[in-house]
Amino acid sequence: MAVVVAFVSQKGGVGKSTLARALAASAVTAGLTVKTVDLDPDQATITVWAKARDRYEVSPPIKVDAFRFVKDALSSTSGEEFVIIDTPGGISEAVAEIAAHATFLVQPTSPSVDDLYPAVLVFGALERVGISRQQLAFAVCRTLADDEAENARAYLSGLGFAVLAGDIPERVEYRAAMNQGRAITEASQQDLSQRASTMIADLLKRAGCVMPQDQPEQRLTGTG
Questions:
Q1: Pick from 42, 58, 113, 213: most CB atoms within 10 A?
Q2: Per CATH, domain 3-206 is 3.40.50.12780
Q3: In the Cβ-directed half-sphere of 167, how many Cα atoms lie within 13 Å?
Q4: How far is CA 176 from CA 13, 137, 185, 193, 224, in A?
Q5: 119/45 Cα distance (integer angstroms)
């Protein structure tokens, strides 16, 4: 059974598509068979990004399939080891449907209270419909200083939620990378690329993924 990782949030612009692109790039580069799904075909953020990746001839190429409905996305899988789902901003019945099929759900949030508070409410709502807290993790993104990132991590951890390692700062180099079809793990500035890779590596492990270089004989195992 495929490992399914979905990125959700009540708000747009908090980092769902940014992390979905980074996860797809890292997983494909590592040799995993990956299906990347864009559930917001109108905005088409990661679909447009994948086309830019082809245009700039970034390797490896990443195919993104766009769907309006969760059931269509899930039924389109054909034996991939890993499915990555980027959802539109907002919480709806579709998110609950995704959660019911997902191995792991990631909710990016900025350190702002305006984002943290509704983000906690979203995960609380998912728990009330039967989603295990072990399936949930926050990702601290769009940070401007180390101390605000640490404070956000401490707040979320103090509530008993998992928080992915590190944080993703606001940097023009990340934007430049994505404008050219690269992921934030492929930024031109090595320290920024490594900073993003730290979070993505933690996500892969928490989702139950074993990278080929770590255990060549067991590439992927699902926890859910």
A1: 58
A2: no
A3: 22
A4: 16, 27, 12, 12, 36
A5: 21
Burial of 7 (0-12, 13-18, 19+ CB in 10 A): buried
Residue spans of the domains in the chain: they are 3-206
Please report, in tens digits, the pLDDT of each residue of the chain (224 residues total).
789 999 999 888 889 999 999 999 999 999 999 999 999 999 999 999 999 999 999 999 999 999 998 889 988 988 898 999 999 877 777 778 888 888 999 999 999 999 999 999 999 999 998 999 999 999 999 999 999 999 999 999 999 999 999 999 999 999 999 999 999 999 999 999 999 999 999 999 998 765 555 544 434 434 33
Tracing tokens 């401007």 back to the chain, one arrives at 144
